[in-house]
Amino acid sequence: MISARREVLAQDHDLTFRVTAIATGTRGCILAPDINLEDALERVAQSAPLSSLDGVQNAPDPLTLIKQADADVLFETSPLNPADGEPASSHVRLALSRGLHVVTANKGPVAFAYRALRSLAAENAVQFRFEGAVMDGAPIFNMVRSCLPAVKVLGFSGALNSTTNIILSSMESGRSFGESLAEAQRLGVAEANADHDIDGWDSAVKAVALANVLMDADLRPSEVIRTGIRQVMAPDLLRARESGNILRLIARGERSRTGVRLTVRPETVRLGTPLATATGANNILTLKTDLMGELSITETAPGVEQTAYALLSDWISIYGARDSRV
Amino acid sequence: MISARREVLAQDHDLTFRVTAIATGTRGCILAPDINLEDALERVAQSAPLSSLDGVQNAPDPLTLIKQADADVLFETSPLNPADGEPASSHVRLALSRGLHVVTANKGPVAFAYRALRSLAAENAVQFRFEGAVMDGAPIFNMVRSCLPAVKVLGFSGALNSTTNIILSSMESGRSFGESLAEAQRLGVAEANADHDIDGWDSAVKAVALANVLMDADLRPSEVIRTGIRQVMAPDLLRARESGNILRLIARGERSRTGVRLTVRPETVRLGTPLATATGANNILTLKTDLMGELSITETAPGVEQTAYALLSDWISIYGARDSRV
Q: Using CA atoms, how far apart are residues B162 and A307, in angstroms rounded to an integer?
């Protein structure tokens, strides 16, 4: 995405870049003053190690790489352990403490360490941005920050997990749970082990990220009242449909006397309401606010490009060069 | 809204203000170094002229007032003539040329004079902001500007007129067109003469505003291919409902070889899709983009407070004091 847009980024956003370090799960970690992105992508496509590129230096692991990199920004996209938010949180912490801006699509650091990382970023006069943590590049965090000034978020509800949306949509058409899960996997939305989606952990981590950032909570995923979709049976879905409803796994945040209460569980959703747009892979979030009432954002059939765009939009925002189009 | 939030605006946004001029349709036009807003509101509530306030000077009309006002920002909210965008465009033009920022909830100036006003604002180093022109304070223009950098808007579709949404929703329940229009008027959504809503002019002006700002078009409302809802009959709505659809007045913008093509007409909308959230007074806009796919925003049951918030959010954005919460 950024390779193909070098000129637009320079012209419209005054943004030029060099890639000085890349850490991968299975292709090694490399450093160099100016890594050719196209060459690096070619090696990955050929299943070759990145160290086979000319003139690059190896690092033993991502943390060492972050320590040694000559860089202004870290893009963090490691796979998440939803039990503790690692290794992403450590990557982010190290980069911020070294004075790098951090852009991540990872919800873990926001759910497990938001307050600490926000303070660390402020201390080091850098930015910690994470639009992709919830609903990919659909503006949620940036929208509240930039477009809803003075607004207080009173609560939220959302269908934030594509895998369960696809499974429940598919079961509505009469397919079994197993067939529907296989369908989500075939579409590339569900991973081989989809337990974290099905049991509501993915939604719970996202709910915590939303609550911690938008509602000033300081919760952890284990504090979410959570029920997955394993108990949802085809007759439940058919019965709902007959009365003009659908069933979806809904993440919900509400202010209570003691703070913010988070739930993730199958809920009946009336057709025609914003939450009912969670068909197929769609994601939807409704924010309940004081000054703007209820606002909902629906992201239609997101793919990996929307996640990439989340990183790109955060990166452009950090450097703040205003787009002159609008 | 701003009276009640003086402290929050000062603390969170570093924004203090004095009201130095007020122009009204029926209570006169006044100038003073520091008008007490609460007193002014009280006079309006008592149907008394604003000139009865102590120490104020009268202006004969809004244009003279804009010429004489000692001000940094004009908030423009005059009723719109959808045939030519006046008097709003003249108000905005005069204020910008005097070096005032302009915030308006009026779609007329954007639909009839966007390019000229944008240039005039740039020449005078001030801002022309109009979030409220479409969907009140729901972030549309500001979202594309601030949260979707580098994204190209390829097209849009939306149900942007509350009156027709209410009428069609009500007719679905078996009521007649006349009863449904009366319902919209009783709710305070439709005006006594709702022809502009029913015949699609309101939606057409909004479509032009969206196209001119987000798609770099330079169209006028008369160029929109437009059909209102007068020909929609109860059996059409029932038939649609039987096959899982609803009918709504949809404004649509698409890029064509010769530029941007705009239509406003009743369309069949499938339940469960974002456009189908246009029930009751709800407004919904779907943006089709290159990098972020399709994004939809639904505003639930907007009222006059959401319009006021549009002005407030634009005003805070002009002064750019970043909210530190997020």
A: 34
